[in-house]
Specification:
Length: about 210
């Protein structure tokens, strides 16, 4: 009976060990699986973060390139308009240059406005058929052409935009008028300068 009781007790201990020991092994395996899932999640998050950073960098660089390209094309257009407009207005439409108008807000000698006359016979100014003014408006960053049409109304047209500096420089004792301009393209949203270019040229009176 004694040995039978000991054998029965040993059998019960084995059953309990298998029962609770199996649960312990199962719980350990579950914890191990949870640990692997967490590791995989961390790896996935790390990879996603790296990919996201790469996408952000590429997008930012693409936006910068796009803005720079847009700024370059816009300034090229304005510089071309300035050259062609001044050449057409001064060289082909007007034959005399009036006295210069100096602004008190700019250094002495900087000419930012000129008056043009047309239909002047010889060196006389008694007969004038047209008067035109080309001026620079620093507040608007524009070079503006003003003239009177056939009905006597004042007409204003923009020669060039995005102009941050502009001046005429008449060449003494010649029929040439030179000019210099600085163009800056500003971001439409932040109004920060993106690109700056300088341009200059000369026009002749006939």
């Amino acid at each position: 009976m004694k040995y039978a009781a000991e054998a029965f007790a040993s059998l019960m201990r084995l059953v309990l060990l298998l029962k609770y020991g199996g649960c312990e092994l199962k719980n350990t395996e579950q914890l191990r699986r949870k640990g692997m899932t967490l590791t995989e999640l961390l790896v996935a998050l790390s990879v996603s973060t790296v990919v996201l950073l790469i996408v952000v960098l590429i997008t930012t660089q693409s936006l910068r390139i796009t803005k720079a390209t847009e700024a370059s094309m816009s300034l090229d257009e304005q510089i071309s308009k300035l050259h062609s407009s001044l050449n057409y207005i001064i060289s082909r439409q007007f034959t005399a240059l009036g006295s210069f108008t100096y602004s008190e807000d700019v250094p002495e000698g900087k000419v930012q406005e000129i008056t043009l006359y047309s239909g002047v016979p010889g060196y006389s100014v008694d007969v004038i058929s047209a008067v035109s003014t080309i001026t620079y408006d620093s507040s608007l960053r524009k070079v503006i052409h003003q003239y009177y049409n056939k009905s006597g109304s004042l007409v204003s047209s923009v020669i060039a935009e995005n102009v941050v500096e502009f001046e005429f420089d008449p060449v003494p004792l010649t029929s040439y008028l030179t000019y210099r301009a600085t163009f800056t393209y500003f971001d439409p949203v932040s109004n920060d300068p993106i690109l700056t270019r300088s341009a200059g040229g000369a026009v002749r009176f006939y």
